[in-house]
Amino acid sequence: xxxxxxxxxxxxxxxxxxxxxxxxxxxxxxxxxxxxxxxxxxxxxxxxxxxxxxxxxxxxxxxxxxxxxxxxxxxxxxxxxxxxxxxxxxxxxxxxxxxxxxxxxxxxxxxxxxxxxxxxxxxxxxxxxxxxxxxxxxxxxxxxxxxxxxxxxxxxxxxxxxxxxxxxxxxxxxxxxxxxxxxxxxxxxxxxxxxxxxxxxxxxxxxxxxxxxxxxxxxxxxxxxxxxxxxxxxxxxxxxxxxxxxxxxxxxxxxxxxxxxxxxxxxxxxxxxxxxxxxxxxxxxxxxxxxxxxxxxxxxxxxxxxxxxxxxxxxxxxxxxxxxxxxxxxxxxxxxxxxxxxxxxxxxxxxxxxxxxxxxxxxxxxxxxxxxxxxxxxxxxxxxxxxxxxxxxxxxxxxxxxxxxxxxxxxxxxxxxxxxxxxxxxxxxxxxxxxxxxxxxxxxxxxxxxxxxxxxxxxxxxxxx
Length: 465
What we know:
- InterPro entries: Vps62.
- Pfam families: Vps62.
- This is Vacuolar protein sorting-associated protein 62.
- It comes from Hevea brasiliensis.
- The chain is mostly beta strands and 465 residues long.
- Helices cover 10% and strands 33% of the residues.
- The relative contact order is 0.13.
- It folds into two domains: 5-145, no CATH class; 157-459, no CATH class.
- β16 (246-253) and β17 (258-270) form a beta hairpin.
- It has six helices and 29 strands.
- The strands form seven sheets. Strands 22-21-20-17-16-29 form a six-stranded mixed β-sheet, covered by helices on one side.
- It has helices spanning 10-13, 157-167, 184-189, 230-237, 414-424, 433-439; strands at 25-26, 30-36, 46-51, 56-57, 62-64, 77-79, 83-94, 105-111, 120-121, 126-129, 142-145, 170-173, 193-196, 203-204, 222-225, 246-253, 258-270, 274-277, 280-283, 290-302, 308-315, 318-323, 329-330, 334-339, 346-347, 351-357, 362-368, 374-376, 381-385.
- The radius of gyration is 26 Å and the shape is globular.
């Protein structure tokens, strides 16, 4: 629904004193009927889009159970400088074309620009259309814009710690996990080396990361690798659960109406993948391995109520937002996060998740389960950044400024590995090598070393979904 004229507050009315002299809110000129059920019973519905005056935007759609056009007194449109463009996101309803004459979709909306510095505010409205809409379409409705750059609704330092203590998830690692997380300091102390392009020898890294090159960009000039000694390499690969801690970045979301608490976990090594081909599960010896693994999940908390709304689970090159009502919890309000075996992707429930073609049952297994191996982020954490609090309030660690790769670039001999897989398959279910290459995730065939949290797109932007 759009803004209700009966719910205007003094704060909103103050916006009428704009340079143009135009009020913040105006009645729509009329309505356009977008769609109706064309039903003659009591369950009929009519979806109306307000027609805004020039210089104003509609915020949403009005739904009635009568064919008569609604009164223009029902809603208000918002002055354009107080709005942001929005896009569709989650599909809520899609009618069956066999039941209704015209297919109809109802979508949630969100601001097009999202992230730490974006000012768009979701207003809880929806968008309707009789054609399949995508996130790139320019909609006939808008979101609001927060013009208050002080972000006074964001939590202060004490409130941040209270939120983490209250909502900090417990992360369970798979019972057969061979590559545990560790603290960054443990990784450095146990022999991680800094390499520079053109030099054969790696240099030891100070436990704080103070001798890592800061700033710049990921230009291939430096990277981190494991120690050369085999015993030391194997030791560091296994990680150290006792030292493990989470690294937390707190930032405004959706115009400061929400707080995003991004929680990062570091694993010294990402283990090999297990491939699923039909009914067969084939453990790989090398494919999927890489040095240094940064994974994260994000809590989204309402700044109006302090409630946990959603959690984002990062899963390799993508991820998913999950509503609080669909999460598992432990000890009150703290969600459970399941880390996948060897790959450390985050999932909301135990089980096996396939990365690839679920229809053909071909891809990479992500196995999750509860075990005795876990870390409680509500107690074992380090706050590494909260820029909105101002300079010096949260001191960023030296290693956070390292913008290069936390592992060397790897290219796997995937053709020979896949040839081995094909040779194991019954003749009547074999695929060509080319088809199998298309079905498996591209990162299995080689990848650059992973970069640290501050280089990721979601450091300043929104989560990928």
